[in-house]
Amino acid sequence: MKVVKGGKVSELLRDTKIPKMFRARQTFPREVIPPEEIPAVIRREMEREGTGDRIRPGMSIAVTAGSRGIRNVDVITRAVVDEVKARGAHPFIVPAMGSHGGATAEGQLEMLAGYGITPETMGCPIRSSMEVAELGYSERGRRVVLDKNAYEADGIIISCRLKPHNAFRGPYESGPCKMMTVGLGKQVGASVVHGDGMDVIAQNIPTMAKVVLEKANILFAIPCIENAYDETCRIEAIPAEKILEREPELLKYAFANMPRLIVGEADVLVVDEVGKNYSGTGVDPNITGTFSTPYASGGLKVQRTCFLNLSKESHGNALGCGLASAITRKIFDAMDIEQMYPNCITSTVLASAHIPCVVSTDREAMQICIKTCNKIDKEHVRMVRIPNSLHIGEIMLSEAYYQDVKAGKYPGLEALDVPAELEFDEEGNVITEISK
Q1: Which of 11, 160, 161, 407 makes an SS bond possible with 179, Cβ 3.0 to 4.6 Å?
Q2: DSSP bridge partners of 61
Q3: What are the pLDDT tens digits along the chain (436 aa)?
């Protein structure tokens, strides 16, 4: 694609005014488990009846590790591994990523390494393979498979994060049941779970999870939940036979601890960085409102959205950029189709992989969104800027919000400075930092 800086597009956008912005702090409930306390919490949880007592000396134990950028995932995974070792068993880690990492064993190992999970840091082997074992069929007639290495172990521990999903709603969203069916299902299982469409995935996950729980050696799950600041706030071990009962209850807790953009509505949303380490769709639509399907809703009510940078942790997987109004050439040039398309082929959701308007600079990404907004006051544009969709404790808001924020219209939101022009470098990239 030819993207010309200084061409006709630049000419059409040149005089579009970008509003003055001010820094603001959002305050949410902050229950938290400090990283240094995580091993003790995991030890305590694995001492609960029906969890660690199921581990016997000499057993081989598969411990799952997913593909998301979970806070403290290396600390959590290592703590689980150490507890397994303390009971005389032999742990190994299994990438439970469905089709992520380009749907290859090597790609999934690379993703884990990016999160600090390697044989050296974890003190145990990592067995990465796309091979699966056949478990049978669900009550809906769907084929159920499981990672072959995990299936052949004497026991499996489901370590994961539990949170709302970004494309559907149901009692079971992102959590142990999804990890068992999509993550451990590898590309094959993930494809089956998603194959009926996002309106049915909420039925496929629990019905297929029942088969996994019946046919595989699942010992227990130990999901973590994060607070509004992307910090670990809860870790709970759940015996295998109680997962289907307990997961929906913990999902309600996860929803209650989600962050949000307190202003609720905007004309333009600017996201500095997107990527798979933040959400399966680059940004969490529960925050940004950029949903890939009609089966989930919420987040910011906004007319235009632009993404400025792709995280290194994404390894070129820019899935989710199709939900933006505009992206920069930086993102477009970093895209790796071989990383992106396996995800959308597996999930059957193609919208996330569409290519939106591509412009040459950060400045033009903001300008094209502002210029193409309909029925707004262009002299008082309501613009929100966030670093990414996980860390929104500190954000930037345009001058149009300033007086209302100062007057206390938005509880939990405070201004940290006064409105000022955003600064850009010679290449048109924004250099004003969101956090001082």
Answers
A1: 160
A2: 91, 155
A3: 778 788 999 999 999 999 999 999 999 999 999 999 999 999 999 999 999 999 999 999 999 998 777 899 999 999 999 999 999 999 999 999 988 888 899 999 999 999 999 999 999 999 999 999 999 999 999 999 999 999 999 999 999 999 998 888 999 999 999 999 999 999 999 999 999 988 899 999 999 999 999 999 999 999 999 999 989 999 999 999 999 999 999 999 999 999 999 999 999 999 999 998 888 788 999 999 998 888 888 899 999 999 999 999 888 999 999 999 999 999 999 999 998 998 888 888 899 999 999 999 999 999 999 999 999 999 999 999 999 998 999 999 999 999 999 999 999 999 999 999 999 999 999 999 999 7
DSSP designation for 267 = E
Among candidates 220, 224, 116, which has minimal Cα distance to 160?
224
Pairing mode, if any, of strands 357-359 and 326-328?
A: parallel
Say how many C-beta atoms besides its own lie within 10 A of residue 368's C-beta.
23
Residue found by looking up tokens 């081989």 in the block = 60
The stretches of 89-131 forming alpha helices (DSSP H) are 105-114, 119-122
Contact assessment for residue 281 and residue 320, using Cβ atoms and an 8 Å cutoff: yes
Q: CA-to-CA distance for 345 and 369, rounded, in angstroms? A: 29
Secondary structure element (H or E) that encloses residue 386, with its range: strand 383-386
- Helix H or strand E encompassing 224: strand 218-226
Beta strands in 1-107 (DSSP E): 21-26, 60-65, 90-95
Strand partners, 218: 156
Q: Which two tokens stand for residue 427?
A: 């290449």
| Rounded Cα–Cα distance for residues 343 and 146 (Å) | 18
Give SS3 for 400: helix
Nearest residue to 150 (alpha-carbon basis) of 159, 141, 142: 159
Query: What is the distance between the alpha carbons of residues 111 and 215, in angstroms, rounded to a whole number?
Result: 29
Q: How far apart are CA 83 and CA 75, in angstroms?
A: 12
As to burial, measured by CB atoms within 10 angstroms (0-12 exposed, 13-18 middle, 19+ buried), residue 301 is exposed
Diameter over CA atoms, the chain = 71
Residue 172 tokens, joined: 């079971």
Query: Is the alpha carbon torsion for 357, 360, 361, 366 positive or negative?
Result: negative
Taking the C-alpha atoms of residue 249 and residue 253, their distance in angstroms, rounded to an integer, is 7
Q: Which of 412, 420, 429, 376 is nearest to 396 (CA)?
A: 420
Backbone angles phi, psi at 332, to 5 degrees: -60, -45
DSSP state of 145: E
